[in-house]
Design goal:
By secondary structure, this protein is of the alpha/beta class. It is 42% helix and 16% strand. The protein folds into 2 domains: 198 residues, Spore Coat Polysaccharide Biosynthesis Protein SpsA, Chain A (Alpha-Beta Complex); 65 residues.
């Protein structure tokens, strides 16, 4: 996170940028980051309430007309924010704009996906298999349907108009819901390839089995909420029942093999009980 904030500090027009860090009960020392960067605002949450609620807290705190969502692993270039701001200033039809994100070796990491079907979401949860990405231009601005929100400048008025991010998604899928809302509105979400940002490789993090189970259950339950919202209540219920049965089947197999039983049990119970990441868990 320090490198990400240091990059913002080098941004053009830094004096006009309000930097808000929402600390979702982290344990890595980032809660004291304002000691190093006194011109930022740190909002410390007592527990991990999930990414969506944390972002909403930051959105409601911010005063600017444009808001920039930034993953802690992403470092902007000095002109990233100013150039994206010019795009939104110049065209009222553009609701949000994203830079082209590269890794440290210069390889393109930005991905554009079609809006997913329920089956697409089920495969993502069950096997980690994402839909085939759409081709993207690395030269000309192009509209996107759905892209992971690692770095996005968006109009605050649009977020207020959709009553902020939907907190039925706790940790997962609010970025998908946001992108779908932009597409539904008839406005534009643009990739601006000439504007760049770098995503650094992070230290590997291996959560304990209970935390992994909570994250897996949250992924499934958030997907069920999305399916219910856009494909109908019955489709969402079918998705959730399917996830419960799949997690029960995985639990039975793990018991026969005497392997990962605790993890599989927690996944099953969390999906069955509807336990999203909401700040009540001790494992996160």
């Amino acid at each position: 996170m320090q490198r990400s904030i240091a990059a913002i500090e080098r941004s053009q027009g830094r004096e006009a940028i309000e930097v808000i860090v929402v600390d979702n009960a982290s344990t890595d020392g980032s809660a004291r980051i304002e000691d190093e960067y006194p011109n930022i605002t740190v909002l410390r949450l007592p527990r991990n309430f999930g990414l969506t609620r944390a972002r909403n807290i930051g959105i409601r705190t911010a005063r600017a007309p444009f808001l920039f969502f930034l993953d802690p692993a992403v470092e902007v270039l000095p002109d990233t924010l100013s150039e994206l701001g010019r795009i939104l200033d110049a065209d009222s039809e553009v609701v949000a704009a994203v830079p082209l994100i590269l890794d440290s070796a210069g390889q393109v990491l930005t991905r554009s996906y079609p809006l997913p079907s329920p089956e697409d979401l089920y495969r993502i949860w069950q096997s980690g298999q994402w839909p085939a990405p759409l081709p993207i231009s690395t030269e000309e601005p192009a509209p996107l349907q759905w892209t992971p929100v690692d770095a996005m400048l968006i109009r605050a008025s649009f977020l207020r108009g959709m009553n902020y991010l939907d907190e039925r998604y706790a940790q997962h899928w609010s970025d998908l819901d946001l992108c779908r809302n932009i597409v539904r509105s008839g406005k534009k979400l643009l990739l601006i390839p000439r504007v760049r940002a770098i995503k650094r490789e992070q230290e590997p993090y291996e959560p304990n089995p209970e935390a992994r189970a909570l994250l897996s259950a949250d992924l499934a339950l958030g997907a069920a909420a999305y399916v219910s919202k856009y494909f109908g209540f019955t489709a969402g219920l079918r998705f959730r029942i399917r996830a419960v049965l799949a997690s029960l089947g995985s639990l039975m197999k793990s018991m026969l093999r005497a392997r990962d039983v605790g993890y599989r049990f927690h996944v099953f119970m969390s999906i069955l009980s509807g336990q999203r990441i909401d700040g009540s868990q001790q494992a996160l």
